[in-house]
Every structure is written in structure tokens, then in C-alpha cells.
Write the C-alpha cells for this entry.
Amino acid sequence: MNAKLELKNVSFSFGKENAINDFSLSVEEGSFTTLLGPSGCGKTTLLRLISGFLTPDSGEILIDGVNQNGIEVNERKVGFVFQDYALFPHLSVEQNIAYGLKIQKKLSKTEISDKISVVSSSLGIEDLLSRNIAELSGGQQQRVALARSLILEPKILLMDEPLSSLDTKLRIKVREELKEIQHKLHITTVYVTHDQEEALSLSTKIAVLNKGELLQAGTPRQIYFEPKNVFTADFVGKANILKKSEKRYMIRPEWFKIAQKSQNFLLSGTILSEEFLGSKCRFIIQCDSTDEKELITADFDTIECENLKIGSHISFEAVKFWEL
Ligand SMILES: Nc1ncnc2c1ncn2[C@@H]1O[C@H](COP(=O)(O)OP(=O)(O)OP(=O)(O)O)[C@@H](O)[C@H]1O
Ligand SMILES: [Mg+2]
């Protein structure tokens, strides 16, 4: 049922503007792959290319090994959940979910209603079927949009920032639900976000994009611990980039310790500011032991740093570091 998706050297421009540049990515069957990048980097354009709303200028998009060039949108078996859900406000929940099946005119009324029961109960919205769209919360609308796509049994599900219109608390709750649903259905999913925390928590694979190009693809841990470039390091979490003995390193704030155990990456500097975060304290330190005397953001355990004050000169160490 679920498919493998491959993009091979895909390029696309809107007129003269190059939106996607020689982009290659492999999306494994049943995986949850996230396209992560700043506004305007080409995420939505990539989804539109995969679904067939746009055609690449060059390169290939393959679903289960079949080149999709020339295959119409409705023949591709690709579902699309949009940022604003694009639900029909004048139709009920049930009518929204049934919409795609009705226009296909392949199934009887009973078959359609059976499918509605299955999909709505798997998403926990079976009690909402007779409601109007305006009577739903943001999270419920999101599930209706998902149901409307899933009922067509897509081989690949594309989601374009589906949580961005929810408030922070609901976003985290729906994010967990989404993860569960994807896991249960094992549906190949390509998900778009510019929220790095969302990407880290949901994905099997993250593809980091900038200006239409793929900068790195890997597991959330690879992207976080072993970024290939400064852009990725900086975009996915907080990163200190510093130069020591002519080499450039990336160190996350939580990789610093005051207690010096191994002494293999010692630093020193003056504390410029302190922010109490509960279990941690975040310090901005003017470093004086690196090549370029960078400002460093370091998170120390609160218990460890009780005596530190703004203006103090301290020695500290990086217990972990990554050479860029
Ligand atoms: N229909 C269009 N005509 C011309 N240029 C476009 C069109 N759609 C997008 N673009 C341009 O293509 C580039 C990529 O746009 P895209 O919508 O894919 O970005 P995005 O990563 O989805 O951004 P966001 O996070 O803001 O949604 C941008 O420079 C954008 O201005
Ligand atoms: Mg977009």
C-alpha cells in the first residue's frame, strides 16, 4: 500500500527565479520525512512537485520506482493536507470527508459510509460527523483534513505546516497524536515545517533546505549532533560556532560543564549575562581562549553554578564537540 518516494536531481523555477535546485532525496516506505527550512526556501514548491501540481524543469520524481512525469495529480495516489486545512465551510464534517470519494463516483453510498466510519474512528472524530466545520476546534479541523486525505488511501501523505495555526499547547498535543496515527497507519509521510522542535520530535528523517537546495538529510540525531554546515547547526537548535587552533567547532549550550573532568576542551572567559531557567542557568560568556574570542552561550546545571556572578572569570569545558 505505502510507497517509496525518490527525488532525483529535481530543479524547478518560477520564470527566472530558481526555486528548487538539483534536489535529490530518498523517502523510505512508511517513514516520516520532514522538510525543514526557513520561509521561502522551497518547501511548498517541493510538495507541489511531488503531488503533480507542478512539473520539474529537469530531474525525476519516482513513486515505487515509477517516474511520475506526465502522471496527473489524481492518478498519483498522493494525499495533501494544507496549512489552512482548506476544508469546505458550507459542508458538514461527514460531507468534507466523503468529498473526494463522491467525485470519483466509484463507490456506492454504503461503501462510502463504511469507509467514513473506519477513518473517522481511527482518528477519534466519529462523534463529530454531523457538525459544521465552524463548530470545530483547530485540532479537530486538522483531523478532519487528515481524514479527508486518508479516506482516498494515498500511498504518500504530504502535509504542509499542518499545525501552524494551532496555539503552542494544542500544537504539542496534536503533534503527539499525529505521530501515533502515522505510526499506526505506517503511511509514507512528507511533512513540512519551519519549527525545528517539531521536526526533531516527529521525524524519522529530516531534510534541511535553504534557498532551494538540500543542505543535509539524516536522522534527527545526526542533524542535531553532526551537522554538516553552519546553517544546519544553527537552524536546528542553538549552536555555538567557535575556532580553536585553526579548527572550527560546533558546541551545543548543554555540552558545556564547569567541572573539569577530562580537560580535553578547556575554555575560559568572562560572564556577561545570566538567565535562570529552572534546572539550568544560561550564561553568555565572552570567551578569551579561542582564536576569535567568540561570545558563547552555555547552559550549566543550576546546582553547579550557584556561585557564578556576572563579571566573574571562569574556566569551563566542552564535554562534547563537533568539528565542522
Ligand atoms: N506561484 C509562484 N510564482 C512565483 N514565485 C513563487 C510562486 N510560489 C513560490 N514562489 C517563490 O518560490 C520560492 C519558494 O517558495 P515556497 O512557497 O516553496 O517556500 P516555502 O519554503 O514553502 O516558504 P514558507 O515557509 O513561507 O511557506 C520563494 O522564493 C517564492 O517567492
Ligand atoms: Mg510554504
